[in-house]
């Protein structure tokens, strides 16, 4: 069996030809009716994966890992882009495709609803989800600050909490549009994002043996696509291994001439220390600002590394009256 690092490196040398089809739960925070998620649904299915789409009924960006479930039927104005009528049940599926589901809750809750309720209904009680794919988001999600804010990331780490491998995909192209606007053009940003997402998922499938976990327990991946498409010279951004910290931006506030707060973004040392990541890897914020796709591996163990925390813990021992180390 390849080591986790060797398998990850293999992503960047293998082609997109599929060796093993995954059972995939596809979700996002931009709604089940967004162009990005529907283009990705089509692309993943065409590649040979079994895909169940379960995503919020309406736009749910910026929710992070918030877990909110519905307690009423769909209220006015209805589902995103008119996709669900007012008064419809709080969850349901497309009348022509029972693999396409909406859930009137947050992204994290939508992912869990897919794992616990929709999965056994569609795949069978004993079937498992091999991989949760969140996105591609309409807009980038780079750096530790966005890691905690993004609903796309929230659905991803919520899935990892449940023990299911998960990857968040985010695209700098932030246009919020309905799947009904999708074109057949390969340079359509939604189709580009779908193709790149499928290439990475296929590469993982090619280095995953039957019955083997796609990613180690407690580990996920965050992928950020740069700005691409017809209005950009970037149409085939290569995948680049990155870390979440490194050039990451955080908000700062000042008071403008009109007396209202003004937000800017700056690079600060507090959000960019290299405590856990591979130090030779560049930061994802820097890489995805160019014509490159950043790929950052993260863990949901939020404890500080022992080398950093031990001195602090030892200094606090008198407070506890006994040694706990």
TrEMBL record:
Keywords: Hydrolase, Metal-binding, Signal. Residues 1-21 form the signal peptide. SUPFAM superfamilies: SurE-like. One of its GO terms (molecular function) is metal ion binding. Residues 24-226 form the Survival protein SurE-like phosphatase/nucleotidase domain. Pfam families: SurE (PF01975). NCBIfam families: surE. Belongs to the SurE nucleotidase family. This is 5'/3'-nucleotidase sure. It comes from Phanerochaete sordida.
């Amino acid at each position: 069996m390849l080591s986790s690092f060797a398998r990850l490196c293999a992503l960047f040398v293998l082609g997109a030809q599929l060796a093993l089809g995954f059972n995939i739960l596809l979700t996002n925070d931009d709604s089940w009716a967004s162009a990005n998620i529907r283009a990705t649904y089509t692309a993943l299915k065409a590649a040979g994966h079994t895909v169940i789409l379960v995503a919020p009924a309406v736009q749910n960006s910026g929710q992070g890992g918030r877990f909110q479930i519905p307690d009423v039927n769909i209220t006015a104005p209805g589902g995103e882009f008119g996709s669900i009528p007012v008064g419809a049940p709080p969850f349901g599926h497309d009348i022509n495709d029972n693999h396409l589901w909406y859930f009137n809750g947050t992204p994290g809750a939508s992912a869990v609803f897919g794992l616990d309720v929709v999965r056994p209904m569609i795949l069978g009680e004993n079937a498992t989800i091999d991989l949760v794919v969140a996105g591609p988001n309409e807009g980038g999600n780079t750096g530790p600050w966005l890691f905690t804010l993004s609903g796309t990331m929230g659905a991803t780490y919520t899935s990892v909490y449940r023990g299911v491998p998960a990857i968040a995909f985010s695209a700098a192209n932030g246009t919020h549009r309905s799947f009904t606007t999708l074109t057949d053009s390969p340079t359509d940003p939604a189709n580009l994002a779908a193709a790149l997402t499928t290439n990475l998922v296929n590469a993982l499938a090619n280095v995953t043996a039957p019955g083997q976990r796609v990613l180690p327990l407690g580990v996920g991946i965050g992928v950020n696509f740069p700005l691409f498409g017809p209005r950009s010279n970037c149409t085939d951004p290569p995948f680049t291994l990155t870390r979440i910290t490194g050039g990451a931006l955080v908000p700062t506030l000042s008071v403008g001439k009109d007396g209202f707060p003004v937000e800017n973004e700056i690079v600060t040392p507090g959000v960019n220390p290299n405590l856990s990541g591979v130090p030779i890897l560049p930061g994802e914020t820097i890489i995805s600002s160019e014509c490159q796709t950043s790929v950052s591996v993260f863990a949901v163990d939020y404890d500080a590394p022992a080398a950093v925390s031990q001195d602090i813990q030892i200094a606090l021992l008198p407070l506890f009256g006994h040694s706990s180390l």
